Amino acid sequence: MAVVLTIIAVLLLIWWLLRFVPAGVEAHMPMPYSTALDRHLWVPAVIGAVWSAALGCWWGAALYAVLLVLVIAGESPYYRHLFGRTANTSRATANTATDGTDRPGASADGVIRAMTLNCRYGRADAENIVRLVRERHIDVLALEELTDELVERLSHAGLNALLPYCQQGAQHAGDNGGFNAIWSRAEPVGRIATFLNIHAADVPAITIDADACGTPGAPSDPGRQVTFAAAHTKSPMRGCREWSYGVRALDAIATSPKPVVVLGDLNACLDHRCLRDVLATGVHDASLDVAHGPTLTFPSWTPWPRIELDHALANSGVVFHSVQAITVRDTDHRALLVTLSVR
Q: Which SUPFAM superfamilies match (predicted)?
């Protein structure tokens, strides 16, 4: 048994270390799925260490201990607040995001509240979505896996009265689960049906004045404009190469001369090399900026084991202040809510 435990420890270590293979290499089954579970390898690490120690297999126990340390190290960027190293956010707003006490009300000048949700083939509860928009005073809403029928239900539930401006992505036969759309409280100064080419459903985008949400009718300032895009990368089951390409293509926002925010189900977490490569270009993630732990969004129906697939990414022109996940009825993803401002 000691030999078996040691072999299992070695295999688990190899599993975890596969996160470092180049992004193109990870685009093969089952790596996208196995890598997504890296954060949960602490479970076999603890069990294996205790079992090995009980059998007197100290080599095996040591290997499991190494695995446990590696798993913790892989999660450490989400907990920089323990070392006073949160990025561009206050402790107060970060605490608000994680304890779920974000209160509704008018957005402060320059502060934008955004929300994204994967609607699971258009099955998400429209009234639940609209209620969240109303109660959380959402200024920008990005939805993925939409259908025409869900858009109609959202309209009947009152979404257009709250967020009257909408840009949809064009519908294609190869869309992954449905099309994407983005709504805004403020009148856009620009809009486009395809903002990025990620080999998946179109990425619609709108550009608004950052101050228009808190101060309706305020004069537009080109220096305060920010673009919001709704993205949904291919899931690995629909094509590993397209999945990897789609995630890596998000690095295009790093070089944008104007502030850009990408909201959506990106089908990737920090354990995936392709997403880490994007972040290495200067793109930053809301959960990492707030640094109070990953914002776990999938699956919605169980608190554990969950992973972080839905993200709010931005370039250097944007500062994230809070991030929170909320369960919505009839969809397998949780909604991701963020507050942000333009530098």
A: DNase I-like (SSF56219)
